[in-house]
Amino acid sequence: MSISEPIPAGTAPPPVAVKEPRGKRFRGGRKWRALRTNRAAMVSLAFLVLLVLVAVFGSLLMTHDPNAQALGDRLQGPSGEHWLGTDGYGRDVYSRLIDATQVVVLAIVQAMALAAVVGIPLGLLAGLVGGPVDAVLSRIAEALLALPPLILALAVVGVLGPGLTNAMIAVGMLLAPRLFRISRSEAQAVSGESYIEACRSVGCSNFRLLWRHVLPNASSALMIQVTFGAGIIIIVEASLSFLGLGVESPQASWGSMLQDAFQNVSVSPSFMIVPTVAIVLTVLALSTFGDGMRDAFEGRGANG
Questions:
Q1: d(CA 225, CA 222)
Q2: How confident is the model at residue 16 (pLDDT cuts 50, 70, 90)?
Q3: C-alpha span between 126 and 139 (Å, rounded)
């Protein structure tokens, strides 16, 4: 049938393809350009990248076996053979610092992955759907946020047992409600937009709405929270390892190195400096980079 021919009476018109409305997508170009002008944030990012490289290529940087004991060489100061000295068991502090850096990066990945997998999808769903789903999930998140973080971590580790993975399950449970609240608020901010209603009118599923329209708008706030959450992970992991509930001996972590140095603080107090400086610099770099991201993204909205 040609276009000029009339449609016979009683015949349904051909279906018209309805295109899914385009929502406001995350535009990160200007935001990242603004971030690059922040020197403190860029220095912090360079430090964090260096930390990741040390963790990835740590086996090539170590000068000794980090767990090898030499009791005859215990508590030695820095030297040509042991660049940062030896601990109370004669183990090379420099090699253990590198090994502990690998543990810290692994801990951040494990805990943040768990928090993101649990917190972000549930938060986006609660903010978009609302109603009883939002009410139930929000009450659960508020209950977890009301608990003291370290106490909750100690309770989880006490049930599951010591070990890095179990400790990171505890930390992931601490961070999931924070990611839930941010993703939920971002989803609520766009759920009433006209393009969301238009997408629903053409049959878009909730999953498609979350993936194509809501999540890109929440990316900025979530990336900022991840940087601050990584600092929390380092502090909690170090605290648990200091108490003997994190990594298991003889595995090195910054917290276990602090615990070993604390046992010999009356003999060699200087050995507490290395892990303390590592923790402080890393948390400071994460906080500074997170502040830089917040300054660069602030005021432009999630739809920027």
A1: 5
A2: very low
A3: 11
- CA dihedral for 202, 206, 212, 214, sign (positive or negative): positive
CA distance readout (Å), 174 to 136, 145, 178: 18, 7, 8
**Taking the chain, what is the end-to-end CA distance rounded to the nearest angstrom?**
47
Phi, psi values for residue 63, rounded to 5°: -100, -15
Give the alpha-carbon dihedral of 120, 126, 128, 133, to 10 degrees.
Answer: 150
Q: pLDDT (tens digit, 9 = 90+) per residue, 24-34?
A: 444 556 777 87
Distance CA 8, CA 176 (A): 60
CA distance 304 to 300: 5
* Continuous H helices in 12-38: 29-36
Q: 286 and 48 in contact (C-beta within 8 Å)?
A: yes
CB neighbours (10 Å) of residue 15? 6
Is the pLDDT at 41 greater than 90? The verdict is yes
Q: Residue with structure tokens 């400071």?
A: 284
Confidence at residue 304, expressed as pLDDT on a 0 to 100 scale: 36
Residue 7 has pLDDT above 60, yes or no: no
Tally Cβ neighbours within 10 Å of residue 5. Answer: 7
Question: How many Å apart are CA 54 and CA 230, to the nearest integer?
Answer: 17
With bands split at pLDDT 50, 70 and 90, how would you rate the model's confidence at 18? very low
